[in-house]
Amino acid sequence: MNFIEELRWRGMLHDMTPGTEEQLQKEMTAGYIGFDPTAASLHIGNLATIMLLVHLQRAGHKPFALVGGATGMIGDPSGRSTERDYLSEDTLRYNQEGIRSQLTRFLNFDSGENAAVMVNNYDWFKGILFLDFLREAGQHITVNYMVAKDSVKKRLETGLSFMEFSYQLLQGYDFYWLYKNKGVRLQMGGSDQWGNITTGTELIRRKEGGQTDLREEHQAFALTTPLITKSDGTKFGKSAGGNIWLDPALTSPYQFYQFWLNTADADCPRLIRVFTLLQKEEIEELERQHAEAPHLRLLQKAIAKDVTIRVHSEAGYELAVKASEVLFGKATLDTLRSIKVDEFDVIFEGVPQTEISAEELANSKDITDLLSTASRGEVYASKGEAKRAIAQNAVSVNKMKIADPAAPVALEWLQDRYVLISKGKKNHLLKKV
Protein backbone atom coordinates (compact mmCIF):
# COMPACT_ATOMS: atom_id res chain seq x y z
CA MET A 1 0.00 0.00 0.00
CA ASN A 2 1.33 3.42 -1.03
CA PHE A 3 0.46 5.85 1.77
CA ILE A 4 0.37 9.02 -0.36
CA GLU A 5 -1.63 7.38 -3.14
CA GLU A 6 -4.10 6.10 -0.54
CA LEU A 7 -4.56 9.63 0.80
CA ARG A 8 -4.92 11.06 -2.72
CA TRP A 9 -7.81 8.87 -3.84
CA ARG A 10 -9.51 9.30 -0.48
CA GLY A 11 -9.27 13.11 -0.77
CA MET A 12 -7.22 13.25 2.44
CA LEU A 13 -4.12 15.03 1.13
CA HIS A 14 -4.03 18.82 1.46
CA ASP A 15 -0.33 19.72 1.41
CA MET A 16 3.10 18.23 2.03
CA THR A 17 6.66 19.45 1.99
CA PRO A 18 8.97 18.54 -0.93
CA GLY A 19 10.47 15.07 -0.67
CA THR A 20 7.74 13.64 1.61
CA GLU A 21 6.44 11.12 -0.91
CA GLU A 22 9.95 9.99 -1.85
CA GLN A 23 10.87 9.49 1.82
CA LEU A 24 7.79 7.35 2.45
CA GLN A 25 8.48 5.21 -0.61
CA LYS A 26 12.13 4.72 0.37
CA GLU A 27 11.81 3.23 3.88
CA MET A 28 9.64 2.71 6.90
CA THR A 29 9.14 6.19 8.31
CA ALA A 30 7.98 7.26 11.76
CA GLY A 31 5.30 9.95 11.74
CA TYR A 32 3.27 11.60 14.47
CA ILE A 33 0.18 13.64 15.21
CA GLY A 34 -0.40 15.60 18.39
CA PHE A 35 -3.65 15.69 20.37
CA ASP A 36 -4.04 18.32 23.08
CA PRO A 37 -6.13 17.07 26.05
CA THR A 38 -8.56 20.01 26.08
CA ALA A 39 -11.43 17.57 26.76
CA ALA A 40 -11.79 14.11 28.33
CA SER A 41 -12.65 12.64 24.96
CA LEU A 42 -11.71 13.04 21.32
CA HIS A 43 -14.50 13.87 18.88
CA ILE A 44 -15.16 12.99 15.25
CA GLY A 45 -13.26 16.07 14.10
CA ASN A 46 -10.17 14.40 15.60
CA LEU A 47 -11.10 11.16 13.86
CA ALA A 48 -10.09 12.58 10.47
CA THR A 49 -6.50 13.03 11.68
CA ILE A 50 -6.53 9.72 13.56
CA MET A 51 -7.26 8.12 10.18
CA LEU A 52 -3.97 9.56 8.90
CA LEU A 53 -2.15 7.51 11.54
CA VAL A 54 -4.29 4.45 10.72
CA HIS A 55 -3.38 4.61 7.02
CA LEU A 56 0.26 5.35 7.86
CA GLN A 57 0.45 2.14 9.88
CA ARG A 58 -1.46 0.13 7.28
CA ALA A 59 1.15 1.26 4.74
CA GLY A 60 3.92 -0.24 6.90
CA HIS A 61 5.12 2.94 8.59
CA LYS A 62 5.38 3.64 12.32
CA PRO A 63 2.74 5.91 13.92
CA PHE A 64 3.35 8.02 17.01
CA ALA A 65 0.43 9.60 18.88
CA LEU A 66 1.47 12.52 21.04
CA VAL A 67 -0.78 13.52 23.92
CA GLY A 68 0.04 17.13 24.73
CA GLY A 69 0.26 17.17 28.50
CA ALA A 70 2.46 20.28 28.26
CA THR A 71 1.01 22.11 25.25
CA GLY A 72 -2.48 21.45 26.59
CA MET A 73 -1.63 23.82 29.44
CA ILE A 74 -1.38 26.63 26.89
CA GLY A 75 -3.80 25.84 24.06
CA ASP A 76 -3.32 26.18 20.33
CA PRO A 77 -4.45 29.59 18.97
CA SER A 78 -4.98 28.15 15.46
CA GLY A 79 -8.50 28.78 14.21
CA ARG A 80 -9.54 30.70 17.34
CA SER A 81 -10.44 34.34 17.89
CA THR A 82 -10.10 34.22 21.70
CA GLU A 83 -7.82 32.56 24.22
CA ARG A 84 -8.80 29.11 25.50
CA ASP A 85 -9.88 28.55 29.07
CA TYR A 86 -7.00 27.53 31.31
CA LEU A 87 -7.22 23.91 32.47
CA SER A 88 -5.87 22.64 35.79
CA GLU A 89 -3.20 19.94 35.89
CA ASP A 90 -5.67 17.47 37.43
CA THR A 91 -8.14 18.08 34.59
CA LEU A 92 -5.41 17.70 31.99
CA ARG A 93 -4.25 14.40 33.51
CA TYR A 94 -7.82 13.09 33.53
CA ASN A 95 -8.30 14.13 29.91
CA GLN A 96 -5.01 12.53 28.88
CA GLU A 97 -6.07 9.13 30.17
CA GLY A 98 -9.35 9.31 28.29
CA ILE A 99 -7.56 10.13 25.04
CA ARG A 100 -4.96 7.39 25.54
CA SER A 101 -7.63 4.72 25.90
CA GLN A 102 -9.48 5.91 22.81
CA LEU A 103 -6.42 5.91 20.57
CA THR A 104 -5.78 2.25 21.37
CA ARG A 105 -8.99 1.36 19.46
CA PHE A 106 -7.56 2.58 16.18
CA LEU A 107 -3.83 1.86 16.28
CA ASN A 108 -2.00 -1.43 16.76
CA PHE A 109 0.47 -1.08 19.63
CA ASP A 110 1.69 -4.67 19.30
CA SER A 111 2.57 -5.14 15.63
CA GLY A 112 6.32 -5.52 15.85
CA GLU A 113 8.58 -3.08 14.08
CA ASN A 114 5.87 -0.65 13.09
CA ALA A 115 3.89 -0.86 16.34
CA ALA A 116 2.24 2.40 17.35
CA VAL A 117 3.81 4.42 20.17
CA MET A 118 2.13 6.90 22.50
CA VAL A 119 4.13 9.75 24.02
CA ASN A 120 3.36 12.73 26.25
CA ASN A 121 5.28 15.98 25.67
CA TYR A 122 5.06 16.81 29.38
CA ASP A 123 7.67 14.07 29.87
CA TRP A 124 10.36 16.16 28.17
CA PHE A 125 9.11 19.67 28.90
CA LYS A 126 8.83 19.15 32.66
CA GLY A 127 12.64 19.05 33.02
CA ILE A 128 13.46 22.05 30.80
CA LEU A 129 14.11 25.38 32.51
CA PHE A 130 12.75 28.51 30.81
CA LEU A 131 16.20 29.94 30.07
CA ASP A 132 17.37 26.60 28.72
CA PHE A 133 14.38 26.45 26.38
CA LEU A 134 15.07 29.93 25.05
CA ARG A 135 18.65 28.89 24.25
CA GLU A 136 17.62 25.47 22.95
CA ALA A 137 14.80 26.57 20.67
CA GLY A 138 14.16 30.32 20.85
CA GLN A 139 17.42 31.40 19.25
CA HIS A 140 16.75 29.43 16.07
CA ILE A 141 13.30 30.80 15.16
CA THR A 142 12.89 34.56 14.54
CA VAL A 143 9.93 36.62 15.66
CA ASN A 144 9.38 37.64 12.04
CA TYR A 145 9.05 33.96 11.09
CA MET A 146 6.54 33.31 13.88
CA VAL A 147 4.43 36.42 13.21
CA ALA A 148 4.11 35.49 9.53
CA LYS A 149 2.10 32.35 10.44
CA ASP A 150 -1.64 32.61 9.73
CA SER A 151 -2.54 31.36 13.20
CA VAL A 152 -0.71 34.37 14.66
CA LYS A 153 -1.62 37.02 12.04
CA LYS A 154 -5.34 36.36 12.46
CA ARG A 155 -5.11 36.99 16.20
CA LEU A 156 -2.97 40.13 16.23
CA GLU A 157 -5.99 42.41 15.81
CA THR A 158 -8.00 40.83 18.64
CA GLY A 159 -5.03 40.22 20.91
CA LEU A 160 -2.64 37.32 21.46
CA SER A 161 -0.90 36.59 24.74
CA PHE A 162 2.78 35.66 24.81
CA MET A 163 1.67 32.28 26.19
CA GLU A 164 -0.32 31.47 23.06
CA PHE A 165 2.25 33.12 20.80
CA SER A 166 4.81 30.63 22.12
CA TYR A 167 2.63 27.61 21.26
CA GLN A 168 4.10 27.09 17.79
CA LEU A 169 7.61 27.12 19.27
CA LEU A 170 6.61 24.43 21.77
CA GLN A 171 5.02 22.31 19.04
CA GLY A 172 8.10 22.84 16.88
CA TYR A 173 10.26 21.62 19.73
CA ASP A 174 8.05 18.53 20.10
CA PHE A 175 8.91 17.61 16.52
CA TYR A 176 12.61 18.26 17.13
CA TRP A 177 12.61 16.14 20.32
CA LEU A 178 10.85 13.24 18.59
CA TYR A 179 13.15 13.56 15.58
CA LYS A 180 16.25 13.52 17.80
CA ASN A 181 15.16 10.89 20.33
CA LYS A 182 12.69 8.66 18.48
CA GLY A 183 13.72 8.99 14.86
CA VAL A 184 10.43 10.63 13.84
CA ARG A 185 10.76 12.25 10.40
CA LEU A 186 7.16 13.25 9.65
CA GLN A 187 4.51 15.33 11.41
CA MET A 188 0.90 15.31 10.19
CA GLY A 189 -2.28 17.15 11.10
CA GLY A 190 -5.22 19.16 9.84
CA SER A 191 -4.61 21.89 7.28
CA ASP A 192 -4.96 24.55 10.00
CA GLN A 193 -1.81 23.10 11.60
CA TRP A 194 0.49 23.75 8.63
CA GLY A 195 2.16 26.76 10.24
CA ASN A 196 2.85 24.97 13.54
CA ILE A 197 4.11 21.84 11.77
CA THR A 198 6.50 23.67 9.45
CA THR A 199 7.93 25.53 12.46
CA GLY A 200 9.07 22.08 13.57
CA THR A 201 10.64 21.20 10.21
CA GLU A 202 12.42 24.55 10.24
CA LEU A 203 13.70 24.10 13.80
CA ILE A 204 15.06 20.66 12.93
CA ARG A 205 16.77 21.98 9.82
CA ARG A 206 18.40 24.85 11.66
CA LYS A 207 19.48 22.89 14.73
CA GLU A 208 20.66 19.78 12.90
CA GLY A 209 21.92 21.06 9.57
CA GLY A 210 22.61 24.72 10.01
CA GLN A 211 21.01 27.57 8.09
CA THR A 212 21.84 26.30 4.60
CA ASP A 213 22.42 22.55 4.95
CA LEU A 214 19.59 20.71 3.18
CA ARG A 215 21.19 17.29 3.16
CA GLU A 216 18.68 14.46 3.13
CA GLU A 217 19.65 13.12 6.55
CA HIS A 218 18.75 16.47 8.14
CA GLN A 219 15.33 16.73 6.55
CA ALA A 220 12.02 16.43 8.35
CA PHE A 221 8.70 16.37 6.58
CA ALA A 222 5.19 17.79 6.96
CA LEU A 223 1.82 16.60 5.66
CA THR A 224 -1.69 17.91 6.25
CA THR A 225 -5.22 16.75 5.50
CA PRO A 226 -8.15 19.03 4.56
CA LEU A 227 -10.46 20.17 7.32
CA ILE A 228 -13.82 18.44 7.04
CA THR A 229 -16.75 20.71 6.27
CA LYS A 230 -20.28 19.97 5.11
CA SER A 231 -21.35 20.58 1.53
CA ASP A 232 -23.02 23.83 2.65
CA GLY A 233 -19.70 25.07 4.06
CA THR A 234 -20.61 24.70 7.74
CA LYS A 235 -18.41 22.95 10.29
CA PHE A 236 -18.60 19.17 10.36
CA GLY A 237 -18.80 17.12 13.55
CA LYS A 238 -21.45 18.86 15.60
CA SER A 239 -25.11 18.12 16.22
CA ALA A 240 -27.81 20.14 17.92
CA GLY A 241 -26.39 18.90 21.22
CA GLY A 242 -22.79 19.89 20.47
CA ASN A 243 -19.75 17.79 19.61
CA ILE A 244 -20.09 14.15 18.58
CA TRP A 245 -17.67 12.49 21.01
CA LEU A 246 -15.90 9.14 20.78
CA ASP A 247 -16.67 8.42 24.45
CA PRO A 248 -19.97 6.47 24.81
CA ALA A 249 -20.63 8.25 28.10
CA LEU A 250 -20.76 11.57 26.21
CA THR A 251 -22.29 10.39 22.92
CA SER A 252 -24.05 7.03 23.10
CA PRO A 253 -23.51 4.44 20.33
CA TYR A 254 -27.11 5.11 19.26
CA GLN A 255 -26.57 8.88 19.01
CA PHE A 256 -23.26 8.29 17.25
CA TYR A 257 -24.86 5.92 14.73
CA GLN A 258 -27.76 8.30 14.12
CA PHE A 259 -25.37 11.19 13.40
CA TRP A 260 -23.87 9.30 10.48
CA LEU A 261 -27.23 7.95 9.37
CA ASN A 262 -28.55 11.52 9.06
CA THR A 263 -25.67 12.66 6.82
CA ALA A 264 -26.75 14.59 3.73
CA ASP A 265 -26.37 12.73 0.42
CA ALA A 266 -24.01 15.41 -0.88
CA ASP A 267 -21.58 14.83 2.02
CA CYS A 268 -21.44 11.03 1.79
CA PRO A 269 -18.89 10.57 -1.05
CA ARG A 270 -16.25 12.47 0.89
CA LEU A 271 -17.08 11.13 4.35
CA ILE A 272 -17.07 7.48 3.30
CA ARG A 273 -13.55 7.93 1.91
CA VAL A 274 -12.18 9.79 4.92
CA PHE A 275 -13.75 7.91 7.83
CA THR A 276 -14.11 4.30 6.67
CA LEU A 277 -11.63 1.62 5.68
CA LEU A 278 -13.73 0.51 2.72
CA GLN A 279 -11.74 0.12 -0.48
CA LYS A 280 -12.17 2.19 -3.64
CA GLU A 281 -14.09 -0.49 -5.57
CA GLU A 282 -16.48 -1.09 -2.64
CA ILE A 283 -17.17 2.63 -2.29
CA GLU A 284 -17.78 3.14 -6.01
CA GLU A 285 -20.20 0.20 -6.06
CA LEU A 286 -22.06 1.61 -3.05
CA GLU A 287 -22.25 5.00 -4.78
CA ARG A 288 -23.71 3.35 -7.90
CA GLN A 289 -26.35 1.52 -5.84
CA HIS A 290 -27.11 4.66 -3.82
CA ALA A 291 -27.67 6.68 -7.00
CA GLU A 292 -30.22 4.11 -8.17
CA ALA A 293 -32.15 4.08 -4.86
CA PRO A 294 -31.17 7.07 -2.70
CA HIS A 295 -34.17 6.52 -0.39
CA LEU A 296 -32.46 3.35 0.93
CA ARG A 297 -29.57 5.53 2.25
CA LEU A 298 -27.01 2.83 1.50
CA LEU A 299 -24.05 5.21 1.76
CA GLN A 300 -25.18 6.55 5.11
CA LYS A 301 -25.71 3.03 6.46
CA ALA A 302 -22.29 1.88 5.23
CA ILE A 303 -20.54 4.84 6.89
CA ALA A 304 -22.53 4.46 10.11
CA LYS A 305 -21.78 0.75 10.34
CA ASP A 306 -18.04 0.97 9.64
CA VAL A 307 -17.33 3.90 11.96
CA THR A 308 -19.64 2.81 14.80
CA ILE A 309 -18.05 -0.66 14.95
CA ARG A 310 -14.52 0.75 15.06
CA VAL A 311 -15.38 3.37 17.68
CA HIS A 312 -17.88 1.44 19.81
CA SER A 313 -17.50 -2.27 18.90
CA GLU A 314 -19.79 -4.70 17.08
CA ALA A 315 -22.06 -4.91 20.13
CA GLY A 316 -22.37 -1.12 20.25
CA TYR A 317 -23.32 -1.07 16.56
CA GLU A 318 -25.93 -3.80 16.98
CA LEU A 319 -27.47 -1.96 19.93
CA ALA A 320 -27.57 1.26 17.87
CA VAL A 321 -29.34 -0.57 15.03
CA LYS A 322 -31.84 -2.09 17.45
CA ALA A 323 -32.50 1.32 18.98
CA SER A 324 -33.05 2.82 15.52
CA GLU A 325 -35.52 0.08 14.65
CA VAL A 326 -37.37 0.55 17.92
CA LEU A 327 -37.62 4.33 17.67
CA PHE A 328 -37.93 4.87 13.93
CA GLY A 329 -38.15 1.55 12.12
CA LYS A 330 -40.33 -1.52 11.81
CA ALA A 331 -39.82 -2.97 15.26
CA THR A 332 -42.55 -5.15 16.72
CA LEU A 333 -43.74 -5.99 20.21
CA ASP A 334 -41.38 -8.98 20.07
CA THR A 335 -38.50 -6.58 19.40
CA LEU A 336 -39.46 -4.57 22.49
CA ARG A 337 -39.67 -7.75 24.56
CA SER A 338 -36.15 -8.71 23.47
CA ILE A 339 -34.56 -5.56 24.89
CA LYS A 340 -32.37 -6.39 27.85
CA VAL A 341 -32.53 -4.45 31.09
CA ASP A 342 -29.09 -2.86 30.59
CA GLU A 343 -30.03 -1.86 27.02
CA PHE A 344 -33.31 -0.20 27.85
CA ASP A 345 -32.01 3.09 29.24
CA VAL A 346 -29.51 3.39 26.38
CA ILE A 347 -32.14 2.93 23.70
CA PHE A 348 -34.67 5.26 25.26
CA GLU A 349 -32.26 7.96 26.37
CA GLY A 350 -33.80 11.31 25.47
CA VAL A 351 -37.30 9.92 24.92
CA PRO A 352 -39.86 11.96 26.96
CA GLN A 353 -41.25 10.10 29.95
CA THR A 354 -44.40 10.56 32.00
CA GLU A 355 -44.96 8.83 35.32
CA ILE A 356 -48.36 7.34 36.01
CA SER A 357 -49.52 6.08 39.39
CA ALA A 358 -51.51 2.92 40.10
CA GLU A 359 -54.51 5.10 41.00
CA GLU A 360 -54.33 7.07 37.72
CA LEU A 361 -54.02 3.82 35.82
CA ALA A 362 -57.02 2.28 37.61
CA ASN A 363 -59.16 5.36 36.88
CA SER A 364 -58.49 5.19 33.13
CA LYS A 365 -61.68 3.82 31.60
CA ASP A 366 -60.24 3.49 28.07
CA ILE A 367 -57.11 4.11 26.01
CA THR A 368 -58.14 7.69 25.20
CA ASP A 369 -58.43 8.47 28.89
CA LEU A 370 -54.99 6.97 29.52
CA LEU A 371 -53.30 9.00 26.78
CA SER A 372 -54.79 12.29 27.92
CA THR A 373 -56.38 12.67 31.36
CA ALA A 374 -54.44 9.97 33.24
CA SER A 375 -51.11 11.20 31.86
CA ARG A 376 -52.06 14.76 32.85
CA GLY A 377 -51.98 15.97 29.27
CA GLU A 378 -48.30 15.19 28.78
CA VAL A 379 -48.89 12.60 26.03
CA TYR A 380 -51.92 14.28 24.47
CA ALA A 381 -53.23 17.61 25.71
CA SER A 382 -56.87 16.53 25.60
CA LYS A 383 -59.17 13.61 24.91
CA GLY A 384 -60.20 15.26 21.64
CA GLU A 385 -56.59 15.45 20.48
CA ALA A 386 -55.99 11.80 21.42
CA LYS A 387 -59.16 10.67 19.59
CA ARG A 388 -58.20 12.60 16.43
CA ALA A 389 -54.73 11.04 16.42
CA ILE A 390 -56.21 7.55 16.81
CA ALA A 391 -58.70 8.25 14.00
CA GLN A 392 -55.76 9.26 11.77
CA ASN A 393 -54.04 5.94 12.50
CA ALA A 394 -51.17 7.85 14.12
CA VAL A 395 -51.03 6.14 17.53
CA SER A 396 -49.31 2.90 18.53
CA VAL A 397 -48.89 1.32 21.93
CA ASN A 398 -45.88 -0.98 22.15
CA LYS A 399 -45.68 -0.87 18.30
CA MET A 400 -49.28 -2.05 17.93
CA LYS A 401 -51.67 0.34 16.18
CA ILE A 402 -54.63 1.64 18.16
CA ALA A 403 -57.77 1.72 16.02
CA ASP A 404 -60.49 2.15 18.64
CA PRO A 405 -60.43 5.23 20.94
CA ALA A 406 -62.69 3.36 23.35
CA ALA A 407 -60.43 0.31 23.58
CA PRO A 408 -59.89 -0.94 27.13
CA VAL A 409 -56.61 -0.33 28.92
CA ALA A 410 -54.98 -3.73 28.48
CA LEU A 411 -51.25 -3.02 28.45
CA GLU A 412 -48.13 -5.11 28.49
CA TRP A 413 -45.54 -3.32 30.59
CA LEU A 414 -42.00 -3.47 29.22
CA GLN A 415 -39.47 -4.24 31.95
CA ASP A 416 -42.61 -4.40 34.18
CA ARG A 417 -42.86 -0.61 34.27
CA TYR A 418 -42.87 1.03 30.81
CA VAL A 419 -45.29 1.42 27.91
CA LEU A 420 -44.06 2.87 24.62
CA ILE A 421 -46.48 5.32 23.00
CA SER A 422 -45.70 6.20 19.36
CA LYS A 423 -47.28 9.48 18.26
CA GLY A 424 -46.68 9.39 14.52
CA LYS A 425 -42.86 9.46 14.28
CA LYS A 426 -42.40 10.68 17.85
CA ASN A 427 -42.03 8.44 20.90
CA HIS A 428 -43.15 8.78 24.51
CA LEU A 429 -42.75 6.49 27.50
CA LEU A 430 -45.31 5.96 30.19
CA LYS A 431 -43.61 4.88 33.39
CA LYS A 432 -45.62 3.03 36.06
CA VAL A 433 -44.78 4.06 39.61
From TrEMBL:
The keyword Hydrolase does not apply. One of its GO terms (molecular function) is tyrosine-tRNA ligase activity. CDD domains: TyrRS_core. A motif ('KMSKS' region) lies at residues 235-239. A motif ('HIGH' region) lies at residues 37-46. Signal peptide: none annotated. Residues 343-430 form the Tyrosine--tRNA ligase SYY-like C-terminal domain. Its main location: cytoplasm. InterPro entries: aa-tRNA-synth_I_CS (IPR001412), aa-tRNA-synth_Ic (IPR002305), Rossmann-like_a/b/a_fold (IPR014729), S4_RNA-bd_sf (IPR036986), SYY-like_C (IPR054608), Tyr-tRNA-ligase (IPR002307), Tyr-tRNA-ligase_bac-type (IPR024088), Tyr-tRNA-ligase_bac_1 (IPR024107). Keywords: Aminoacyl-tRNA synthetase, ATP-binding, Cytoplasm, Ligase, Nucleotide-binding, Protein biosynthesis, RNA-binding. It is an enzyme of class 6 (ligase). Belongs to the class-I aminoacyl-tRNA synthetase family. TyrS type 1 subfamily. Catalyzes the attachment of tyrosine to tRNA(Tyr) in a two-step reaction: tyrosine is first activated by ATP to form Tyr-AMP and then transferred to the acceptor end of tRNA(Tyr). NCBIfam families: tyrS (TIGR00234). This is Tyrosine--tRNA ligase. It comes from Spirosoma soli.
